[in-house]
Structure formats: C-alpha cells, structure tokens
Amino acid sequence: xxxxxxxxxxxxxxxxxxxxxxxxxxxxxxxxxxxxxxxxxxxxxxxxxxxxxxxxxxxxxxxxxxxxxxxxxxxxxxxxxxxxxxxxxxxxxxxxxxxxxxxxxxxxxxxxxxxxxxxxxxxxxxxxxxxxxxxxxxxxxxxxxxxxxxxxxxxxxxxxxxxxxxxxxxxxxxxxxxxxxxxxxxxxxxxxxxxxxxxxxxxxxxxxxxxxxxxxxxxxxxxxxxxxxxxxxxxxxxxxxxxxxxxxxxxxxxxxxxxxxxxxxxxxxxxxxxxxxxxxxxxxxxxxxxxxxxxxxxxxxxxxxxxxxxxxxxxxxxxxxxxxxxxxxxxxxxxxxxxxxxxxxxxxxxxxxxxxxxxxxxxxxxxxxxxxxxxxxxxxxxxxxxxxxxxxxxxxxxxxxxxxxxxxxxxxxxxxxxxxxxxxxxxxxxxxxxxxxxxxxxxxxxxxxxxxxxxxxxxxxxxxxxxxxxxx
Length: 472
Hints:
By secondary structure, the protein is mainly alpha-helical. 68% of the residues lie in helices and 6% in strands.
C-alpha cells in the first residue's frame, strides 16, 4: 500500500469515526423530541401528572444529547474542507446549499423554540409551550429531511451536469427528491424512533428490576413496547422497499451485501451466513437457501440478481464488511420484533410488569436500536465505495492532498478528545437514566404541577436543564 493509499484509508477511518459518534446523538434527539411532544400532548389532554413528570425527566436527557449532536456535527463540517477538499470542490455546489437549507430551516426552528421548551414552563401558557415542543420535534425531522437528501444524492445523483469537472445543479427538485431519498428518509426516521423506544424501554426495565412499580416507570415501559410493536414491522417493510430501490440503482452494493459473486440463472440463493473473500472472489463457508435471495430481492421465485463478477474489480464494494454489517442490522431488527411480540403476549397475560426475565431482555436490548443504526450506516456508506458520489466522483479523487502523519495525528487527537468529551456526556445521560423519573409530592398531589413550583423551578436557570450531579 502506497503512502497516498494509506492517507486515504486513514482519512476514511477518521470520517467514519466522527460520523459514527455524531449519528448517535441526532438519532436519540429525533426520537426523544417526538416522544416529548407525545408526552406533553397527553398531559394537556388528560392532565395526569405522570405525563408531565416523564416530560421533565426525558427533556434532561434530550437536552444533553441535542447539545452533543450539535457539537459533533460542527466537527464534520470542517472535515469536508480539511480532509475532503476534492469532494467539496467537485460536488460542493450541490451539497453546500443542501446543508445550508438545513441550517436556515431546521436549525433556526430548533434554536428558536428549544429555549421555550426547556425553560418556558412558567413563561408561556401550556398551549404555547406545547407548540414550542412540537416545533422542536418538527425541526429535528426537517433536519433529517435535508441531511438525508444530501446523502441520498451522493448515493443516487441526478438533476446535475458536469461542467469543467465540477457538478453544476440543473434541477433542484430532482436533486432533492433523488431516487433513493424517499426510502432512505423513511428508513432513517423510523430508525430514530426505534432508537428512542429501545432506550426508554431499557430505562424503565432497569427500574422495574430494581423494584419500582410506580406509574411513571410502568407507563414509560408500556409506551416503549407499544411504539416498537407498531414501528418495527413498518421498518421491516420500509427496509424491503429500500432494498428493491438499491437493487435498481446500486446493483453492486446488493451483490456485496449478499456475498453473491456469480449471476445465478433460474433463481438466486440467499447466503444466510458465510465469509466473502475479496481476493479469492468467493463466499467461503456459505450456508445457502435456494431461491430465497430472489424472493427477497425481486419478489419472484426465479428473479435474477447480478453477481459481483459482473462489475469491474475496481468498482466492487468490500463485501466482507457490508455482508456482516447488513446481517447485524437485520439481526437487531428481528430481536426487536421478537421483544415487541413477547411484550404483547405478556401484556395480554397480565404479566408485563412482573416477568423479570423479559425485563432483563428489554434492558439488554437497550443499545440494539443504536447498533442497528450504526450497522445500517456502515452498510449504506461502505456499500457505496469506491464512489463518494456514486458513478460521478471516486473516493480516491475526493481526498485532500494530506500526508499519513497529518491524518494519523488528527485521527489520534479525535479519538482521545471524543472519548473524553462525548464519553463523559454518554456517562452523564446513563446516570440520569439510572436515577429515573420522580413524582414529587407537590406534583403527585395535584395542582402544584401547574404553578411553577417544585420541578418547574429549574426553568429559571438557563442552560442548566440537567440539574443532577454525575455522582451522588
């Protein structure tokens, strides 16, 4: 491997590291923002104190996650200029405006209403506060819209022309609503809801295992399992539609995901497990199920799927990586579906809050949404290689002219700083979850919940929404 190839590999590792840290926090924020809107809406409708207390509790965790998401996202913006100058030069006329649209719409909307949501309980009326919460939730979804539009254009570019080696926008509607965008937007939004539901469920399971049976814990446990029961099947259907779209526009990615080297006539087998060997051009130790690949990827018994050998060697994604990252994502999804169905069975049997084995399972599955999310992003991004803009710009042509020492040093600094800063933030979020929601006497007994007394006193201390110390 030449020094140029080493620098490219390190630059890719650095971006993969920073984006993997970053995506955790927006996913949590997107899911929790909508959950907070639901909680406050239920409180306005029923006036039950439990919903307001759950809002206070999860708003702390949302605030920490939102802040870390903003900070980690800024770092990535700088990386486009420092490590990927070729990408910015060639494709910046498209990706730059799309990211600017996100700032001008989603970020300004979130920033405008976030303070009201976190600190405005005694400053505005209940309906105005609920409107602010809904605007924050809407802002997170608008942000998802623009980010996924930009990333999807890199996967399935259209609506542009190449002038003097640079991408020039021609039709913004085609750029924004590119062929893979609707599928990837739905898939990502549902993934964020699953991430939040799994975390909420695991937090409640932790407290149930510790003997708590108050309404706040039971309510959050129940809501999380209902959410998973509804969303996970929809996500599976959305993933299937996304797979059909990917087969149409990125057939090499599908072949790599399936570890499929030869184009099989009369029906394609599914490699359930195996080890794709890029050098030997075969999937070793494969366990095959005849025709299942055709059924899943073409919805027909004898559908034909192109094998990796149909593409030039330099255009093939790394099948070893995406083969297993995809199966990790699907495996987590199946476990989440199993968990939701078990929860439904226990609910019908009246044992949902007493089955400790199930509560341990839900606690164990707390990170499963994030694992599935990260595995899915590895699949879609590594599967796009060797292109940074599919069919338009190769990754090797997008990297800045940096040395191995320069990229290696910055990567080492990122690793140290990220684990210190964001590791501390994650630890704090976990400590907040471990404390759990409380029902103070003044809230539990009724009207004091609406007076600005008790929990609402935190609203008078801007930028201090999370008020609990990390350690007792």
